[in-house]
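Action item from last meeting closed. Structure (304 res):
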């Protein structure tokens, strides 16, 4: 009989879950991905990489019970209710996140890792961010060994195609001299694999995770070097931040430090030496995204 233990991964066809599935496989775990469409392109890529795919839906508790049966661990991430066109409401996100935790507890899962966000820990007044507080509180209330990670803003978000990099300009949430923490999606997976690998060290912990801290000016310098042509930086226009209530609140969370993050990068790098700084990410996993963003015409897509 094989003694390889199984971790169930939610969202494995997406960014975080995909990174977690790959890192767990690399560490020798058996991985079971809950996917809505096992015949889809991304699910088939997972199968090709040795991941078991089972049909399921976050809105269908029965499918989760079947998927969690006999598993050692569960990685829980929910689709972003704040993302335009996601079709997921804030209440859906909370319902999905609490259902995953409840079912993990009932199935006797030994370790649940919930991916929250850097802004959790206090009420922000931004509904699609405060969903994470509600799920975190529920996870902590259960009789299940849990670890909560709070990822910083993804480096990938900076290179969203259509935001103006083709014209040599990046606009984001912080001021040019303000620091914000970022993490490469690849590293979320590696950290989660390390967490499952050392439950004694990480059980019961809530950890903010990040790989770099960058001002707007530093972003422009790194991007200029990587692109081989000048890239300037400015904060998103004040008019936009005052017209768009949610975006204005999100920028205020950078100003008060809650979205900017406060993780101790020295401590994190000591625990997770693989953590990529932005410069190395741009030359590695981010190179293709940079290339695409530099070629995609500006469509005025402001980040959220
Ligand atoms: N962007 C950032 O900087 C940042 C920072 C910190 C935290 N976050 C949080 O990260 C989360 C999103 O993670 P991500 O970027 O990895 O997501 P993503 O790439 O958008 O992927 C979402 C995943 O969820 C799956 N999914 C959607 N609805 C489902 C359902 N009803 N049942 C089962 N699976 C379903 C999708 O599967 P399909 O392939 O079937 O669609 C996909 O695999 C959000 O909660 C967001 O708030 C984001």
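Sequence:
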């Amino acid at each position: 009989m094989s003694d390889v233990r199984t971790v169930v991964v939610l969202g494995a066809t997406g960014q975080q879950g995909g990174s977690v599935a790959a890192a767990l496989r690399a560490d020798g775990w058996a991985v079971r991905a809950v996917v809505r469409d096992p015949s889809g392109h991304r699910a088939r890529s997972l199968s090709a990489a040795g991941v078991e795919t089972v049909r399921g839906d976050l809105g269908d508790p029965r499918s989760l019970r079947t998927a969690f049966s006999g598993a050692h661990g569960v990685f829980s991430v929910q689709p972003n209710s704040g993302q335009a066109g996601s079709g997921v409401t804030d209440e859906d996100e909370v319902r999905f996140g609490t259902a995953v935790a409840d079912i993990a507890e009932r199935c006797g899962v030994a370790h649940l890792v919930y991916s929250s966000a850097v802004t959790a820990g206090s009420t922000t007044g931004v509904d699609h961010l405060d969903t994470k507080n509600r799920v975190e509180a529920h996870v902590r209330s259960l009789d299940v060994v849990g670890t909560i990670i709070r990822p910083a803003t993804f480096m990938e978000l900076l290179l969203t195609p259509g935001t103006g990099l083709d014209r040599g300009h990046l606009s984001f949430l912080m001021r040019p001299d303000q620091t914000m923490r970022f993490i490469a999606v690849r590293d979320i997976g590696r950290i989660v694999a390390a967490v499952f690998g050392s439950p004694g060290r990480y059980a019961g912990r809530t950890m903010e995770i990040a790989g770099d801290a960058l001002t707007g000016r530093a972003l422009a310098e790194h991007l200029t070097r990587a692109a081989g042509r000048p890239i300037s930086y400015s904060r998103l226009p004040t008019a936009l931040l005052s017209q768009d209530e949610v975006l204005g609140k999100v920028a205020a969370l950078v100003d008060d430090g809650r979205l900017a993050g406060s993780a101790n990068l020295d401590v994190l790098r000591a625990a997770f030496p693989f953590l990529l700084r932005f410069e190395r990410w741009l030359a590695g996993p981010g190179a293709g995204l940079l290339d695409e963003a530099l070629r995609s015409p500006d469509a005025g897509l402001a980040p959220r």
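Note appended to the action item: The longest helix spans residues 90-106.
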